[in-house]
Specification:
Elements: H1 16-22, E1 25-31, H2 38-50, H3 62-67, H4 74-84, H5 91-107, E2 110-117, H6 119-123, H7 129-147, E3 150-158, H8 163-173, E4 182-186, H9 198-206, E5 210-215, H10 221-229, E6 235-238, H11 246-254, E7 258-261, H12 263-268, H13 280-285, E8 289-292, H14 297-300, H15 304-314, H16 320-332, H17 338-353
Parallel strand pairs: 1-2, 2-3, 3-4, 4-5, 5-6, 6-7, 7-8
Length: about 350
Amino acid sequence: MTTAPPPSRSVPRERLPALLRAMPKAELHIHIEGSLEPELIFALAERHRQNGRAIELAYPSVDALRAAYAFKDLQSFLDIYYAGASVLLTEADFHDMAMDYFRRAAADNVVHAELFFDPQTHTERGVDFAVVIDGLTRACETARRELGISALLIMCFLRHLSEEAAFETLEQAMPFRDRIVGVGLDSGERGNPPEKFARVYARCRELGLRLVAHAGEEGPPQYVWNALDVLKVERIDHGVRSVEDPALMQRLAAERVPLTVCPLSNVKLCVFKSMAEHNLATLLDAGLVATVNSDDPAYFGGYINQNFIAAFDALPQLTSAHAYRLAKNSFDASFVGSAQKLRWIEALDAAFASA
C-alpha cells in the first residue's frame, strides 16, 4: 500500500502516552505460548491435577517462577519458555491461553493480531496437532465475536530442530491449511541460519502460505539477507541488527520490507543494554517499515502498549509522527486485504485528529 503522510498536527509529548494507548494498532509478532502468564501456568497445572494428571513444575509458586525471568540471552529464555508450555495439553488449555492474550490485546486497542504458534513444542510432548489448532482457532473466533479483534495464525518451525522435522510438521498441518495464513521460523538463531530451511520454505511458497522469519535479532545481518534471498520472506521478525549493514538498510527501505520489532524483548534478552540504546528511531528515520510488538509478553515485561510506552519514554527523539507511522506500518504490513487496512487506517487518522 502507498504511504500516506502522517497527520500534520503534532501532539505534545506529555499527551503521547495517552495517544499511544488509544490509537488502534495491529500486533504482528506475538508468540501465543509466550503470553502464558505464571498465574495461568499454575491454574492449568491445578486443572490437570484435579483431572488426575499431575504436572511437576520446577518452581513452587507464581512468585518464584516470575523471579526466574532474568535472562542473559535468547537460549536462557527458551529453557523456561519450553518448560512453561508443559501445562498445555488440551484444546481448552490452548483456548484459554489465547483468550487471556486477546483480552489484554483488546484493552491495548489492538484491532488485529497475527499469532505465532509452535506446534513442535507440543507434538514432541505427545499433544496432537489438532488439539493445538482447534483450541487456537476457537479462541480466534471468540475474540472476533466478543472483542472485535481480527486474528490470523502463523505456524512457526523451530529452527534448532531439523528441516526434516519441519517437513513433518507441515504435513501434519495440511488438513488445517485453511486455518493457517503463513509460516515463520523461531527459536535459537545462533547456529541455525535461514538457509537450513530453504526446501521447506520453497514448499510453503508453492502452497500459497505467507512467509516470515526471525532474523537479525541475535544473528548477524547476513541472516536477514538470507531470509530475503533464500527463504523469500515477506516480513522480517526483529531485524534490529540490520543497522550494521548500510546496503541491507537501503534494500529494506527501498523494498518496504516490514520489520516486526519487539523493544522490551530486545532489552530483556540483552540485544540492547538499555531501552535508551534501542535503534527503533534509527530504523524509522531510515525509512524502514518498522512496527512495535510484544514478542513473548508474559516473559519480557509487557504487552504491546507497554512496549510503546517504554520505547517512547526512553527515546525522546520519537514523536507523534513516529507513533502514527508505527501504527500505520502495522496495518500496511498485515496479511489482510486492502479494504480492511484502509478502514483501520481511517480509524487511526480519527484517533490522531481527536488527540
